[in-house]
Amino acid sequence: MRPDPGEVLAEQRRLRAALLDRRAAVDWPQARELACHLLLRLDDADACWRFATEWLCEHLDVDRVDGGYAHPGAATYRLAHAQARREDPGIPSLEGITVDNRGAAMLYLWASQRAVVFDDIAQTASFTPTLRADLLRAGTRSKIAIALWADGRPLGLLCIDHVLRQREWRQALFERFGGAATQVLAPVLWAAARLGEPRRSVAYESPAATPSGDPVGWSMLTPAERRVAALVAEGRSYKEIARQLNRSFSTVDHQLRSIREKLGASSTARVAALLAGRR
Q1: Contact, 116 vs 109, CB < 8 A?
Q2: What is the per-residue DSSP string for 85-135?
Q3: Residues 143, 120: contact at Cβ < 8 Å?
């Protein structure tokens, strides 16, 4: 379900005024180009994520970029909601890696006000053994990560990697990455996520399916995830949801994992409780 064109236009105008009309709003001049491209894709949050990772990979000259919606209250975070890699068949994908969001490195990342450098993955003591092994298996040698916040709320995580060979991170690159993430990506991706909220649906307007406000990260869910979440709130089983939405069991399972991560819920039952307004 596409957002209302009038609302998209209004958000584009607001963001253009905030990011492009005032040159001082964006420190890295090239990041203004990124903002322009993203505003053209504002009606599709996933397209914004994909373009952003591809653009950063090219313009920062790094081996791999990945990012996605995340919440500090979630038990885990799945890498590579969006991912871009240098054109080299030797650079592995991060898909399938799940991070313990309660590990020391992740807690520090969420608490930091700026990008965090992990110079040597093999020697980073704050990583859990599982995360270190997964990253090394994916060829990661060093990483810069940043937590994205918008309007005082957590939005997601974004990372850039050196893969297969160790390279020193330049200060200019660190500043460009951090500036593009906080000054451009955070506000634009937040707006795109909010615009993706369905406006007219009986399922979402029922008391059991409509959360009170946005404290549980409802605006981070995609329209497809909202349809699944609404049925969860009604007490439907995985099989019932799959049958009603004409989706495979594995697709529903994947969407529910994503929903739990975005809402910071440890279980599907907790998702139902959050959406029903219970604590």
Answers
A1: yes
A2: E-S-TTS---TT-EEETTSHHHHHHHH-SS-EEES-GGG-TTS-HHHHHHH
A3: no
Contact 232, 272 (CB under 8 A): yes
User: What residue ranges in the chain does DSSP mark as E strands?
Assistant: 64-69, 76-78, 82-85, 98-100, 116-118, 140-150, 153-163
Query: With left for phi above 0 and alpha for psi between -120 and 50, is residue 268 left, alpha or beta?
Result: alpha
Query: Which among 238, 248, 242 is positioned nearest to 272, based on CA atoms?
Result: 238
Best CA proximity match to 150, nearest among 12, 15, 17, 5: 15
Assigned CATH for 5-195: 3.30.450.40
Which tens digit of pLDDT belongs to each residue from 85-131?
998 888 999 998 999 988 899 999 998 889 999 999 999 999 999 99
For the four alpha carbons of 266, 269, 275 and 279, in that order, the dihedral sign comes to negative
pTM for the structure as a whole:
0.72
Taking residues 47-76, what's their average pLDDT? Answer: 93
Those residues whose C-beta lies under 8 Å from the C-beta of residue 166, and which sit 6 or more positions away, are 120, 141, 142
CATH architecture of the domain formed by 202-275? Orthogonal Bundle (1.10)
